[in-house]
Amino acid sequence: MSFQGRHVCHIADMTVADVDRVLDAAERLLPAARGERTLEAAKGKILATLFFEPSTRTRLSFESAMHRLGGNVISVAEPGSTSATKGETLADTIRMVSSYGDVVVLRHPREGAARLASRYSRVPVINAGDGAGQHPTQTLTDLFTIRKAKGEIRPNTVTIAGDLKYGRTVHSLAQALAMYGAEMVFVAPESLQVPADMRQHLDAMGARYRLASTLEEVVGETDVLYMTRIQKERFPDLDEYRKVAGVFRVTPSLLAEGKKGIVVLHPLPRVGEIDPAVDDTPAAKYFEQAAYGVPVRMALLAEILGLKGVA
Ligand code: CP
After folding, report:
1. Which of 107, 207, 272, 305 could form an SS bridge with 202, CB 3.0 to 4.6 Å?
2. Beta strand 157-161 pairing with 46-51
């Protein structure tokens, strides 16, 4: 089914068939994403990026993706520069912005903000991260990276480690991996494990997962190690953050105990979860993962905008 004109607020807004179609198109778009092929399919179209939280990868890769498709970009990277500071509601902001562009990419600190925005938008809204909620386009990039590194998604055991409570990339990815039937291991301090409501949802989906508390106990059975940052900015109490900060660190010696062919992913930014000495090992895939944000977002924009002859 065509994805044209649809919102992507949650990974569950897409089926496995939708995701596969986007990932297949992203594969074909790799040369264009690197600038080796020039496209004009999005000529005359405008992407509006509206970021109420900091971002390096998501905003810039979306903007690069739109430029690579031949389209234009309008952007708010600094929320202090918008009329939200004068008290304008998100609903009103979206009413305006969606009349200035053909698709809106929104990052917001409030969970559910993208879904709310979609109700007031004249054009498709893509969630670029809503508080501790979801980050579906990061998940598309993660799945693409797993496919590139491992050939397929389902047969892998994916260990997801770090902040599984507040980490929105984790929430999207776990649901996507459940959709694909991959096996998951969730490694976190008890206070940062996957929230109970999400576990219930995974159970209802028939997801295959287990919980663990150390990397050492699971590294030998892990095909993909997905590290995440402890989300300091989401802790109501900084003393609670200090208790768990720095709890996990991937090192070459840990990986030496790992399953043959293990790869390490991270949505980035990292703040100590991965020793830089890992960067030069064959396991390190996190910078490639960040680069894949461009072809994957090109493919998604092309689907949503109904662009012809792109991939
Ligand atoms: N992975 C990710 O969302 O990175 P940014 O916060 O830099 O966009």
Report:
1. 207
2. unpaired
